[in-house]
Write a sequence for this structure.
């Protein structure tokens, strides 16, 4: 990842020889709101100062967590004592850096971009399985903390370590450096190279781009349970197309190349090997890679479970779960999953029982998410969580007594912590939190303690520590700034299809007065936007207070309402997604008289940016103004694993790419809505050339629009000043055009 520079914002009007427009004068109330914008940006949406990376120690005596100061992104390590309820600082980045500046390698920057991590300092840490040691990475170096004494030892590795992890016995640490796998004995503090010959185009132990960006697999190596060998990936990107990003503010620095597989083109060639601690010989795992080229998941469980891999065909309509013999590399089939549209991945599965007698498995074959208990041979034993329970994420499977914790629920706008005891049905865990809110919970290894993060439309997140019976032991301390207001939000369903919607009204709302509307949209697979969450509506309230109704809708193609609802977008991103946004705003206008249906705008980022631009191009009769941030313009230019999952391989389904491309509609003769395009020039997820292609097509078609490039910014916009100026510009666009 290229260095994120101090960004300069440029505004370019693509209408040739257009007169320079003077900025609209700002009223005193707007200047006051700009103070909120700065506060929102500097506190990272009021998340700074709240615990993250929360983990219970194996002995259940402490809860460790990371936390920043209220207006900082530098994270420090803390420990909450369960018995006393007291919290103490364990380690600070300053203590390790000793005045030097934290530096990140391009590889680490890229990894954090894939993981959407904007923090600095300690962004991750690990607890050894026996709980005696902590592993803390910082600035490419590794530190081991003895918990009993507090002694800190810097491991004598080479610079630029990546993806470090304790061995199962806690005596060694493995990591990636210079495209190869290394390990170090903690006691001897001596580094040893495991793999050899790694290069930027043939890496060992590194997850390839689509694994990190789309599969949720962020690692490329795995310790054996006995800590005597490794499984690791070799990812060959020599035949993958390379895309170059140039810092347009500093062309003298040259460009940086990225292996980026576009639909229909070559992917990385990935294989899995097993080798000893010395790396003397690699045994390559054998599977039908021609039929199943994607290595989606790898687990090497302790106990009796085998090294297990999940591989997918390129269309992602079929996947095979295989048990591996590490000595020979031979595999045997445990099960096969098929779906005529696509298969969703859940990286927590398969989850093997420690005695090797079976494993937990995730499937959607019966119309929704299910968790099954399967025998060691892959045959079904029983279903633990059925589709109507609304499973969303794993909280913990307690091996000790077979209790399963998961997050979810039947209402897609809410979430709760649920528990399934052996032979029982899912029951909501009594946490004391209101039903209408968002809970995310987990359990300790032996199930004695629970961690529950809870928020609602009226409250920001708090992390509680509870006993398994729901007894509250304490709340992890926060130092966060609280937002200056509680959003005025209503969540409801609208229309015959029951679209979930949230409506944010101005705080000085006057019933009966017609207001222009801004639709905040995502609208695509994997993500919903209507939540019972205060944090999710802070920006909406800031916008609403400037004289708008701000609404969000979840239409077909979004998750959490069953497989049929989600799979409506197969081979077509541009029809039902937009039709449902149109239908939803029209249905809302029937029941909310303040909606001015003749003054509707729309804005979004990434897939939401695509949707906003699509709305301006296809339905300017409904959406009079649009702001499209980092939009995917032509799906032939996005990555393989995401795009082909939904639209198919382009050689087989060219019509899907044609109907889904914004360029198809940019060339049509009809006028478009007032469109503002925003994009980071250093974006390595949705490349800046997407927006340039759309701008060029609109310019050639004689369709005026505005372009706001964010110089040096990637797909995330963490710079407070940039975010402040960006949103001022967004609201100027809507005020002028609505």
């Amino acid at each position: 990842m290229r260095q994120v520079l101090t960004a300069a914002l440029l505004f370019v009007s693509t209408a040739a020889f257009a007169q320079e427009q003077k900025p609209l004068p700002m009223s005193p109330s707007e200047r006051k709101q700009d103070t909120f914008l700065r506060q929102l940006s500097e506190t990272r949406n009021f998340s700074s100062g709240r615990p993250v990376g929360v983990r219970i120690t194996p002995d259940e005596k402490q809860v460790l967590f990371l936390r920043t100061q209220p207006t900082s992104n530098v994270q420090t390590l803390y420990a909450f004592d369960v018995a006393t309820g007291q919290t103490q600082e364990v380690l600070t980045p300053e203590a390790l850096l000793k005045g030097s500046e934290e530096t990140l390698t391009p590889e680490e920057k890229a990894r954090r971009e894939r993981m959407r991590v904007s923090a600095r300092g300690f962004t991750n840490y690990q607890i050894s399985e026996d709980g005696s040691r902590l592993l803390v990475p910082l600035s490419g170096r590794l530190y081991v903390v003895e918990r009993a004494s507090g002694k800190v030892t810097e491991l004598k590795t080479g610079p630029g370590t990546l993806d470090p992890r304790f061995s199962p016995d806690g005596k060694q640490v493995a990591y990636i450096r210079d495209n190869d796998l290394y390990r170090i004995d903690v006691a001897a503090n001596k580094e040893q190279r495991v793999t050899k010959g790694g290069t930027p185009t043939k890496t060992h132990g590194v997850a390839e781009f689509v694994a990190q960006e789309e599969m949720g697999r962020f690692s490329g190596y795995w310790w054996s349970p006995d800590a005597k060998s490794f499984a690791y990936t070799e990812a060959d990107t020599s035949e993958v197309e390379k895309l170059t990003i140039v810092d347009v503010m500093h062309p003298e620095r040259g460009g940086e190349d990225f292996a980026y597989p576009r639909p229909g083109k070559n992917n990385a060639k990935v294989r899995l090997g097993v080798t000893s601690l010395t790396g003397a010989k690699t045994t390559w795992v054998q599977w039908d890679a021609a039929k199943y080229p994607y290595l989606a998941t790898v687990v090497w469980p302790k106990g009796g479970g085998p090294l297990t891999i999940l591989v997918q065909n390129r269309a992602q309509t079929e996947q095979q779960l295989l048990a591996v013999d590490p000595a020979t590399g031979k595999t045997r089939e445990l099960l096969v999953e098929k779906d005529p549209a696509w298969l969703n991945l859940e990286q927590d599965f398969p989850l093997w029982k420690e005695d090797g007698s079976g494993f937990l498995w995730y499937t959607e074959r019966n119309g929704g998410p299910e968790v099954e208990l399967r025998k060691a041979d892959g045959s079904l034993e029983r279903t633990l969580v059925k589709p109507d329970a609304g499973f969303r994420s794993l909280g913990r499977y307690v091996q000790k007594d077979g209790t399963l914790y998961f997050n979810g629920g039947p209402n897609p706008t809410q979430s709760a912590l649920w528990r399934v005891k052996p032979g029982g049905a899912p029951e909501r865990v009594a946490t004391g939190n209101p039903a209408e809110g968002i809970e995310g919970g987990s359990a300790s290894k032996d199930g004695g303690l629970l961690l529950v993060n809870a928020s609602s439309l009226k409250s920001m997140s708090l992390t509680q520590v509870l006993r398994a019976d729901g007894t509250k032991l304490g709340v992890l301390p926060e130092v966060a700034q609280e937002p200056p207001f509680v959003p005025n939000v209503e969540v409801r369903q609208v229309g015959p299809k029951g679209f979930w919607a949230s409506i944010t009204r101005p705080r000085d709302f006057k019933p009966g007065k017609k207001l222009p509307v801004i639709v905040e949209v995502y609208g695509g697979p994997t993500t919903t936007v209507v939540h019972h969450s205060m944090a999710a509506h802070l920006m909406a309230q800031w916008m609403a207070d400037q004289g708008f109704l701000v609404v969000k809708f979840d239409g077909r193609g979004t998750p959490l309402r069953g497989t049929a609802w989600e799979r409506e977008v197969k081979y077509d991103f541009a029809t039902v997604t937009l039709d449902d946004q149109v239908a939803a705003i029209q249905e809302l206008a029937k029941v909310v008289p303040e909606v001015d249906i003749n003054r509707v705008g729309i804005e979004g980022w990434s897939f939401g940016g695509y949707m906003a631009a699509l709305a301006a191009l296809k339905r300017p009769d409904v959406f009079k103004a649009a702001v499209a941030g980092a939009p995917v313009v032509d799906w032939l230019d996005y990555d393989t694993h995401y795009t082909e999952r939904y639209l198919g391989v382009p050689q087989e389904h060219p019509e899907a790419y044609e109907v889904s491309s914004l360029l198809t509609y940019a060339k049509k003769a009809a006028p478009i809505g007032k469109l503002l395009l925003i994009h980071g020039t250093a974006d390595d997820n949705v490349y800046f050339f997407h927006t340039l292609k759309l701008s060029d097509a609109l310019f050639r078609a004689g369709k005026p629009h505005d372009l706001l490039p964010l110089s040096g910014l990637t797909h995330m916009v963490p710079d407070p000043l940039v975010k402040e100026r960006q949103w001022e510009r967004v609201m100027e666009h809507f005020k002028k055009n609505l």
Notes: DSSP finds 13 helices and 45 strands in the chain.
